[in-house]
# Entry
Amino acid sequence: MPWPTHAVTNQVPELQDYNLFATDTALAQGLEQAGAGWHAGQLERLGAELGSAEVLRMGALANRYPPELQTHDRVGNRIDAVEFHPSWHQLLGLLRREGLHALPWMAPRPGAQAARAAGYFLHAQVESGSLCPTTMTFASIPVLRNEPALFPLLRDKLFSLEHDARDLPLAQKKSMLIGMGMTEKQGGSDVRSNTTSAVPVSGEGRGAEYALTGHKWFFSAPMCDAHLVLARADGGLSCFFVPRWRTDGSKNPILIQRLKDKLGNKSNSSSEVEFQGAAGVMVGEEGRGIPTIIEMANYTRLDCVIGSAGLMRQAFVQAAHHARHRSAFGRLLAEQPLMRNVLADLALESEAATLLMLKLASAFDAADDPLQRAWRRIVTPAAKFWICKRAIAFTGECMEVWGGNGYVETGPMARMYREAPVNSIWEGSGNVMCLDVLRAIERDPQGAALLLQDLREAAAGHPGLLALLDGLQGDLQAAPEEREALARRFVQRLVLAAQAALMLRHAPQDIAEAFAASRLDAGWGRVHGTLAAPALQRRILDRAWPQ
Ligand SMILES: Cc1cc2nc3c(=O)[nH]c(=O)nc-3n(C[C@H](O)[C@H](O)[C@H](O)COP(=O)(O)OP(=O)(O)OC[C@H]3O[C@@H](n4cnc5c(N)ncnc54)[C@H](O)[C@@H]3O)c2cc1C
# Structure
């Protein structure tokens, strides 16, 4: 119907019904390079489904109607249940069907981690909250499969491709989700301060049952069928498998106190809980709770990198789409030289983030290779620091490309911007990640030397990059206190060197050179849009988001 006062013009059509995978050249090429080209067909199908108007709408609805806690039923019985919009369960169903909670464990083969990472990256472009329980389930499997008494009972439910939303004892369920509980009121980074206690009920040590009393201050996805929880036994901080229901069919006394009212990540319920003698089975050795659960955190940190890279990709695509349809001062925004510089700079950063997440995922596939172990152990926390933090500024810049329309909740940009910071905070905040990089280098100096040598080989013929690597080597000689104080500077430079090396190895030469040159240029970096290669910018954009 024509509007009586004016015609609507120069507004941008919704970006929907497009294929997230088929339009992403860097992802498709990176997948091949990671030896996971065998998964391309499935990703192409998934990319079309995720880009459909229907699934995009699910992502929006799951966040517009956040979960609600129901502590009691109508007649006053405690139920501690969380109710979700149906879209939440549809999204979990989709993740599950694609095996994104378990693919490399269910069907190990070369490239399986990269294949799974690519699928996760696509889903992150549509909805992030549903990734949280998916990631925790994925990350728990390498821990649980070391438990010979427990794992056979869980295996089929963990590997099931069906999402089962019912709140029932495990024996009655077709599949299960797993969360993690470490953070308490007095400390999240320093979990050694945990006070939740674990008292033996039958036997002691690995595989024995304990009663847990205490609290967790952040306990995401409390509707998961079980959580891996840190609690203090006689022998020290230990890890426990704490199911939602006890084996006798009664509810395990894990009381949900309230749901957090969060900045973003609205679809996902993050709760505060109290354990009132909750049943838990010890996982790993008594007193070795931190190393046991850190195995899980290595994978959740990888997923933070993949998820943030996915968020960056989607924010960039939305920005480029907008700029190709919106005009100002007589020209499309994408044709304005300064806007083109901003978009090309964003595209470069997005491609480098994509390559880095695929490289790290591949490194998780090569368990015994010392160089890949160094990438995995040293570069994963570095990337967790850098990519997750960059996603905050990145999504903010993309939102600005949309102008005022970016700032309102009727479009996707505001949600992405609110979503971005969480990956930087949870699973080890920025400083903690930087300190972890230093720790990993101290523990494996030979691995660090191999890594620097690998980067050096990729940097051959690039004096600026070689000088950066010399600088990194020099930084490692500093006294411990100084090294710690300068950790962010070191890690930032390490990640940029790693990204430049990956770009030089895998991206078209001129585009890789533009990345390396800009990231080594002291004038680059505080905002996007400071590239000094105007002639290339159109090509960078056409590669990143084909017309
Ligand atoms: C939405 C959301 C969901 C979450 N879900 C879960 C969950 O399911 N399970 C769970 O266990 N936790 C969860 N967390 C908690 C999260 O992992 C912690 O918030 C995080 O690890 C930081 O711990 P903290 O909040 O206690 O901050 P602190 O540990 O107090 O840290 C505060 C700041 O100090 C810095 N810092 C700490 N130590 C040092 C140091 N030595 N040197 C320099 N700087 C330092 C940190 O980097 C951080 O920036 C969740 C958090 C959020 C926001």
Residues 289-325 form the longest helix (37 residues). The pocket of flavin-adenine dinucleotide is lined by residues 179-183, 187-190, 218-220, 262, 265, 270, 422, 425-432, 435 (CB under 6 Å).
